[in-house]
Specification:
seven-stranded mixed beta sheet, 19% helix, Nucleoside Triphosphate Pyrophosphohydrolase, globular, alpha+beta, four-stranded mixed beta sheet
Length: 196
């Protein structure tokens, strides 16, 4: 289904790569393009578009002593110079399914491997006004310990956090990243709806 009408149409006259950093595959790196466009209103201008690799996020929930718990990382993020809570996740490798990337990232970053039934929870574009990337969040209801985390560039500490704390953490600005925020709030919304 498309909701774009001819009046909404943009015209692209040219596109050029202004900057690129290679990744594991040609389309897996970061790329900044400048598009020469005409907007529906008739204005012509340069429109920067940032292309990022697809991202996969693991939302792993288990039953704990005080109710449902979610596997999270307490970590520091250099670009925003702050600590916060994140779901494990990262880039999807060339040829890899998003759910496989989410499971791999969870094991590498937390030392817990998701297992059992999984399902896609939500897929979204976090910044569609200027960034092209898709975030895939997958849900598991169990995990097994695998030992110490393997990713030395992810210095966070894995913790099982009560799901009942999610809305408070979101309101306090403690959840870092769109995949974490959108994924957790989608899970809480679905859980609330299913109890009604």
């Amino acid at each position: 289904m498309t909701d774009v009408t001819p009046a909404d149409s943009w015209t692209t006259h040219a596109a050029s790569t202004a900057w690129a950093a290679s990744g594991p595959a040609d389309d897996a790196g970061v790329r900044v393009e400048v598009h020469d466009v005409t907007a529906p209103e008739g204005d012509r201008f340069d429109y920067p578009v940032v292309h990022l690799p697809r991202v996969a996020v693991a939302l792993v929930v288990r039953n704990g002593e005080s109710g449902e718990e979610v596997l999270m990382l307490r970590t520091y993020r250099y670009p925003v110079n702050r600590y916060g809570w994140e779901l494990p996740g990262g880039g999807v490798d060339d040829g890899e399914e998003a759910w496989m990337a989410a499971a791999r990232e969870a094991a590498e970053e937390t030392g817990w491997r998701p297992r059992g039934h999984r399902r896609p929870l939500i897929e979204f574009e976090p910044l569609p006004g200027g960034v092209s990337t898709t975030v895939h969040v997958h849900l598991w209801r169990d995990a097994e310990p695998t030992g110490e985390p393997l990713d030395r560039h992810e210095p966070g500490r894995a913790r099982w956090v009560p799901v009942s704390d999610v809305v408070r953490l979101a309101g306090a600005g403690e959840l870092l990243g769109a995949g974490t925020l959108v994924g957790l709030l989608q899970y809480v919304a679905e859980s609330t709806t299913s109890r009604q």
